[in-house]
């Protein structure tokens, strides 16, 4: 192959990778299911399906109201028992256009789950319009759990405030939870995990976007966490405690994703064999 042909091939590969990272992947959406086996999760609610919609960043490139409506439809098609949204509703890239909570909350009100649709606020919500986001979500039937818990039949759901911009008050969030009751919790930033007790069966978070860009062997390029890649993505188990971090749907700062697809995460929670 001549030098000219090599140069053309290299340019073509670079163009394909750029289109992949700046258009095809960030504009896509996958629905990915995970089977999580959680200690002390009761058999009576084994198989609980929880949809996680993290980091919607509405108004960022590829994440307008039409895209949001498609996300709602695809989530509903999975027939989840419960939907949690771990914050960052507000767009966060330098190319974003402003979409107000008054515009996006009515679209999110179309989400359906028998145990409800619940949210916490993320750092971008706190930086921009926290009162408006909370008000509009609640007025459209979406419960906002900031450092408090709600009983949902045979288990409790707790929302913990954002690690960066809110008082992530874990004791207050859990103070009304019945002793020994099964407990799911969710928050925006997974760094909260190091401060959570064993009584939380599973903590769900977002915020990291899975780094947005992942190169095999090199790792994830930017993970906004004081712990690096430790809590970047997926199911993490430490000292018997369980965390799930969704890669989320939108993008932050730069509208790029590579090998870290936007995702509606469906968690199917099962009992560890031998648990109650």
Molecular structure report:
With 276 residues, the chain is of the alpha/beta class. The protein has helices at 3-27, 65-77, 101-108, 123-128, 130-139, 170-174; strands at residues 30-38, 48-52, 82-85, 92-93, 117-119, 143-144, 148-152, 155-160, 183-187, 202-205, 214-215, 219-220, 234-238, 241-245, 252-253, 263-271. It has a single domain, classed as 4-Layer Sandwich (Purple Acid Phosphatase, chain A, domain 2). It contains 6 helices and 16 strands. Strands 1-16-2-3-5-6 form a 6-stranded mixed β-sheet, with helices on one face.
Assembly state of the chains shown:
single chain
Report on the biggest sheet. Answer: 6 strands, mixed
Q: Might you state the CATH topology name?
A: Purple Acid Phosphatase, chain A, domain 2
What Rg, in angstroms, do the CA atoms define? 19 Å
User: What's the count of strands?
Assistant: 16
In CATH terms, what is the architecture?
4-Layer Sandwich
Assign the CATH class.
Answer: Alpha Beta
Number of domain modules: 1
- Share of helix among residues? 10-25%
Count every helix, treating DSSP H or I runs of 4 or more residues as helices: 6
Order of strands in the sheet with the most strands? 1-16-2-3-5-6
**What is the H-and-E element order?**
HEEHEEHEHHEEEHEEEEEEEE
Strand content: 25-35%
Low-pLDDT parts are none
- Terminal Cα span: 66 Å
Q: What overall form do the CA principal axes indicate?
A: globular
Structural category is: alpha/beta
> What's the pLDDT, averaged over the residues?
94
Structural descriptors:
276 residues, six-stranded mixed β-sheet, alpha/beta
């Amino acid at each position: 192959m001549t030098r000219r042909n090599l140069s053309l091939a290299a340019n073509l590969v670079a163009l394909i990778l750029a289109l992949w990272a700046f258009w095809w992947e960030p504009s896509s959406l996958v629905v990915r299911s995970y089977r999580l086996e959680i200690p002390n999760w009761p058999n009576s609610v084994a198989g609980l399906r929880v949809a996680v919609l993290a980091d919607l960043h509405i108004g960022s490139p590829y994440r307008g109201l039409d895209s949001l409506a498609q996300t709602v439809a695809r989530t509903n098609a999975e027939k989840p028992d419960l939907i949690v949204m771990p914050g960052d509703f507000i767009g966060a890239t330098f190319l974003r256009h402003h979409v107000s909570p008054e515009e996006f909350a009515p679209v999110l009100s179309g989400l359906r789950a028998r145990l409800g649709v619940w949210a916490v606020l993320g750092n971008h919500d706190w930086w921009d319009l926290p009162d408006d986001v909370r008000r509009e979500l609640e007025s459209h039937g979406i419960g906002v759990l900031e450092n408090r818990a709600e009983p949902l039949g045979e288990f409790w759901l707790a929302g913990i405030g954002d690690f960066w911009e809110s008082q992530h008050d874990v004791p207050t969030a859990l103070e009304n939870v019945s002793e020994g009751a099964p407990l799911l919790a969710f928050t925006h930033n997974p760094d909260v995990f190091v401060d959570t007790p064993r009584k939380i069966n599973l903590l769900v978070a977002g915020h990291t976007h899975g780094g947005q860009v992942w190169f095999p062997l090199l790792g994830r390029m930017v993970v906004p966490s004081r712990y690096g890649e430790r809590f970047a993505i997926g199911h993490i188990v430490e000292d018997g405690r369980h965390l799930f971090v969704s890669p989320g749907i939108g993008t932050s700062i730069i509208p790029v994703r590579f090998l870290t697809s936007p995702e509606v995460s469906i968690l199917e929670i099962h009992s560890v064999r031998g648990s109650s």
